[in-house]
Amino acid sequence: MWKRDEAVRPTSGTPSTPPGGAGGGAGHRPEADVRTQIERDMVNIGKSVVIKGELNGSEDLTIEGHVEGKIELKEHVLTIGPNGRIKAQVFAKSVIVLGEVTGNVTATEKVDIRDNGSVDGDIIAPRVAIAEGAHFRGAVDMQRKGGQPGQPAQPVKTENKPAPPPQAAQQQGGPRVGA
Fold first, then answer.
1. Do 81 and 63 form a contact (C-beta atoms < 8 A)?
2. Distance CA 23, CA 20 (A)
3. pTM of the prediction?
4. Total Cβ atoms within 10 A of residue 51
5. Over the stretch 42-86, which tens digit does the pLDDT of each residue have?
6. Inter-CA distances, 81 with 108, 112, 124, Å
7. What is the pLDDT of residues 139-169, one digit of tens each?
């Protein structure tokens, strides 16, 4: 009978469901909500999907299919899966390459070419990691986010360094003039 009551309670008894389900449901529902939100914040493009054109988004993206054109995820992570084949200009916060990318890659944080990943194109990012076994052909420009303030500081330092040699030249010039 007890089993029958339990079977009857969920189907007919909404009052018995909230007390039993409130404790368990409250614990599970936030987790489910978090999982749902994580899933919403990450999108997958499957192996059989082919996209030609411009791809923009405001969430993390994993590509296992083929994309040709332009990809912009400026505030999010782009992952090119092992089956992913990209022929595009890529702009993202961070790019992880496990498949193949043909085109220039620009990231505001990091480009990570993992084992068996391939990039044919230029990379612009403050941090670049290329794993052993990865393929890369192109140029790397490791610009920093605050690169403009840092760059003037370096020429100032180099301007300070040339200052002592002219003093040394004046010292050398003094004896030459005196001789």
1. yes
2. 6
3. 0.61
4. 16
5. 789 999 999 999 999 999 999 999 999 999 999 999 999 999 999
6. 20, 12, 20
7. 999 977 644 433 333 333 323 333 444 444 4
